[in-house]
Design brief:
By secondary structure, this protein is an alpha+beta fold. About 40% of the residues lie in helices and about 15% in strands.
């Protein structure tokens, strides 16, 4: 039988989060939470020189291996917590599906959601994503994000990524020289819009140009960007809206 993951006894910060997640876990029996509280309090009495939180975690694992009151449910919950802490390794995530401009979700909050869902419904997705199944109501994917990028720079960073992907495959318009038609990539706050443009000083991007809408350029751009893990949607005006 595979041994369940346990936290290092010397890592007090992780042990403290382990206890916080366990205390916030949903318990079926009304007395289970009281047993957990008693185990945590009792573990701090006998070895004052040791790490308090790590010692409490160890006491909970030992109790879960036994057959005393509530041990079965405590065993389930401590395994759910250990699973959540192993699964959610990044500091910030964004939910998908989500609003157009989602706010980053702290990793600790995603761990709480995983504990509430249980280890059977919180799964590792592609890359470092976390998938929380919601029964018959679908699922939510949490993908790691880098919150260090200020909001006013996020769109420009994404625009650079989009340009890098498209440059090798489609002709990009140069709006500075007004020479030739092509694909244009513009920031829209924290998202990016991709469409067709031609050199008319008074013209807006032509979302319905034949080369763009029916000639395969839009479809190619969409496939290339989706292949890089970006979210691409066709807007009512025919342009592509790209988000992370």
């Amino acid at each position: 039988m595979q041994t369940e993951p346990r936290l290092p006894a010397t890592d007090e910060s992780e042990a403290q989060e382990f206890l916080e997640l366990l205390e916030g876990a949903p318990f079926t029996a009304p007395y289970t939470g009281q047993v957990v509280d008693w185990l945590i309090r009792d573990s701090t009495v006998h070895a004052p020189d040791a790490s308090p939180a790590a010692r409490a975690v160890d006491a909970l694992w030992r109790y879960a291996d036994g057959h005393d009151l509530g041990a079965g449910e405590i065993a389930e919950r401590v395994r759910d917590v250990a699973h959540a802490m192993s699964l959610v390794a990044d500091e910030h995530y964004a939910a998908d599906p989500s609003p157009r401009r989602p706010r980053p979700v702290h990793g600790r909050s995603v761990r709480k959601l995983c504990v509430a869902a249980g280890r059977r419904r919180s799964l590792a997705g592609p890359g470092r994503t976390v998938v929380i199944a919601q029964g018959t109501h679908g699922h939510t994917v949490y993908r790691p994000v880098a919150p260090s990028v200020p909001p006013d720079r996020a769109g420009e960073t994404l625009r650079h990524e989009v340009l890098t992907v498209l440059a090798a495959h489609v002709h990009l318009a140069d709006r500075r020289t007004f020479q030739g038609s092509g694909v244009v990539v513009e920031c829209r706050h924290e998202s990016v819009e991709v469409t067709w443009w031609y050199p008319d000083l008074e013209a807006e991007p032509d979302h319905y140009h034949p080369a763009w809408s029916t000639g395969g350029v839009r479809l190619l751009c969409s496939a290339l960007l989706r292949g890089e893990g970006m979210k691409v949607t066709v807007q009512p005006n025919g342009a592509l809206l790209v988000t992370r």
